[in-house]
Amino acid sequence: MALRVYNTLSGKKEEFVPLAPGKVKMYVCGVTVYDHCHIGHARANVVFDMIYRYLKYVGLAVTYVRNYTDIDDKIINRANRDGIPWHEVSERFIAEFDKDMAALGLELPTHQPKATEHIPEIIAIVARLVEKGHAYAVEGDVYFRVATFADYLKLSKRNLEEMQAGARVEVDGRKENPMDFALWKGAKPGEPSWESPWGAGRPGWHIECSAMSMKFLGETFDIHGGGKDLVFPHHENEIAQSEAANGRPFVNYWLHNGFVNINSEKMSKSLGNFFTIKEVLERYDAEVLRFFLLSAHYRSPIDFCDQNLNEAHAGLERIYKGLAEIDRVCAGKREAGGLLSDGGRELEEKVRDIGLRFREAMDDDFNSALAIAGLFDLTRVVNRVAAEDSVVSDRLCEILATARQAVIDVGRVLGLFTSEPAEYLGRIKSRRAAELEISTEEIEGLIGERALARKSKDFKRSDEIRDLLLSRNIALLDSPLGTTWAVK
RNA sequence: GGCGGCGUAGCCAAGUGGUAAGGCAGAGGUCUGCAAAACCUCUAUCCCCCGGUUCAAAUCCGGGCGCCGCCUCCA
């Protein structure tokens, strides 16, 4: 089955056919490094990391470029505010971005270029646009002349006249057309600048992506991604610049991820309802966040709230527990032979199909939500076998081991299940225990006391202890091997 | 006002022509001294409403209602 992707340009799902067989060139807009990243950045980057991994998984050789926009008005503002040089702002937040992405378990892109390291390339494109009549200089600024690009707004499917009619922007009288946008901004006194044919200045917002994608991926490449909010104006303007300069199609497939809402509200700085990645990771394990982000289709809006995160936590834990069950069962006593119970046979079947189900789900526009459903399905049957089969045969363990590997393989694409199950469950437990008012020693002591009470059949005292701990959010789990505890 | 998207059980969420995945929560059962976990069974006669196309529609078309996003920096 072939990979199909939703292309913003056509508004439809299309079969993905790379320009060069077996190779994919992909560019994703990175961040402007002037502040800490928030949960919306987390989604965009996790989503495209998943896409990157899947493309590789199906055997494609992917060149993945994700840029840093390290010169921009916001960076300059922040530097002025903090009284430090602009490059200290960008350097600091590049480092913070890298930390966040590493914490989220992202793979590194093939290239991570910076705008300021491509000034000559940027100037060259601007010069070419001026030369071809697609751009004009005014008092040190250079603007793109949208009237010369017939396909303008083909991505966002808007209409130039109507946009102007409804424009909320103050019109800059120096522009020929209010919709013309800056390719190059002349420097005001004290601002960072680079020499150019139009005087000292710096690149406009959109041009660096045209320059860097062209440098690393060529004039036409396969996939360009980013958040939905970049469709207009950023990506629209990239198309205009690149196609006007090169006279060739810029990108074949445009992929855009949906927004993160906070408690069903749009997340925005003005509403103050945004969370940085670091804040979220203080409260939730990185893998839980990743699981949450991938549990909905990447184009759907997703609602960030405690209930949904807690559900993600429960779901991820369920699958990890299933993996831990496999480890437990197969480490125990086994019998030679290949007899399988009904459950064993069902598991055999599920394991056989899981790879195909995964590919079908992911081939359909990277449907990670459906892919995860397949894992839950497999987990249920694993648990059934673990609960019902008193005799564990070598054959069953082989199948369980295959199931375990299948989950790990899927996890490798989704960036999940990277920990040993026991290690993950332990990590979660101690994380939650740290929030408790009660010490581990105290819990263990009470469990010991209860064990004595149970031995002497003093179930009244036994239940008192259970209830006492339960009131402190500790659940006791009795098993033939003894009593363990978990945080509720 | 223009453009785009969405509306599936209490909640989250797949499903774009063949008769409703999965998770959470809930009910009953198995197990347990009692529990928890796990497993089993059940929980949408129906997919916002009204028309239409079709042998067949949550899925396609038309109309309506509601919600959201973009149009300004934004992942």
What do these coordinates show?
The chain has 488 residues and is α/β, with parallel strands linked by helices. The protein folds into three domains: 4-277, Rossmann fold (3-Layer(aba) Sandwich); 306-420, Four Helix Bundle (Hemerythrin (Met), subunit A) (Up-down Bundle), CATH 1.20.120.640; 436-487, no CATH class. It has helices at 39-57, 73-82, 86-103, 119-131, 160-165, 207-217, 231-246, 277-283, 286-294, 306-331, 342-363, 368-388, 394-414, 421-433, 440-455, 459-471; strands at 4-7, 12-15, 23-32, 61-69, 135-138, 141-144, 181-186, 201-203, 221-227, 251-257, 260-262, 265-266, 302-304, 474-479, 482-487. It has a four-stranded parallel sheet, sandwiched between helices. Strands 5-6-7-8 form a four-stranded antiparallel sheet. Strands 12-11-13 form a three-stranded mixed sheet. The mean pLDDT is 91. It binds one RNA strand of 75 nucleotides through strand 3, helix 1, helix 5, helix 7 and helix 10.
Please, what is the CATH homologous superfamily of the largest domain? Answer: HUPs
Q: If you compute it from the alpha carbons, what radius of gyration comes out, rounded to the nearest whole angstrom?
A: 28 Å
Instruction: Tell me the strand order in the biggest sheet.
Output: 4-3-9-10
Quickly give the CATH architecture of the largest domain. 3-Layer(aba) Sandwich
Q: Could you tell me how far the N terminus lies from the C terminus, measured between alpha carbons in angstroms? A: 43 Å
The overall number of domains is: 3
Which fold name corresponds to the CATH topology of the largest domain?
Rossmann fold
Number of strands: 15
Low-confidence stretches: none
Q: What's the helical proportion of residues?
A: 40-55%
Number of helices: 16
Q: What is the average per-residue confidence, as pLDDT, rounded to a whole number?
A: 91
Secondary-structure-based class equals alpha/beta
Major pleated sheet: 4 strands, parallel
The CATH class of the largest domain is Alpha Beta
Give the percentage of residues in beta strands: 15-25%
Global geometry? elongated
